[in-house]
Specification:
This protein is mainly α. The protein is 49% helix and 0% strand. It has four helices and no strands. Helix 2 packs across helix 3. The two termini are 37 Å apart.
Length: 93
């Protein structure tokens, strides 16, 4: 995994604002041809700088008007208790 240069950082900044931007648009914004942009994006993905792409869903429009953050602490950290907690959590989603 190499160091990020200025162009890599600019690519990441644009993709963070709009993950759907295509290589043509990105190359126009950064004044670099499409092939190097494509190769840099693939390298950033392969090196783990880009973990994935997501869609930000409007929770109210899909019928989930409340967002809850939950922190769970376990007294015992073995597989049985962790699996029970996961099953309990999934049951109430």
């Amino acid at each position: 995994m190499g160091q990020l240069d200025k162009t890599d950082v600019e690519i990441l900044q644009v993709l963070q604002k709009d993950a759907k931007v295509n290589t043509k648009e990105l190359s126009e914004k950064l004044h670099i041809s499409k092939t190097p942009i494509y190769e840099r994006i693939k390298r950033l993905e392969n090196d783990g700088y880009i973990k994935g792409y997501v869609a930000l869903v409007d929770n109210k429009k899909v019928g989930l008007p409340l967002i809850v953050f939950c922190n769970v602490s376990l007294a015992v950290h073995d597989d049985e208790h962790i699996n029970y907690g996961v099953l309990f959590y999934r049951r109430y989603l």
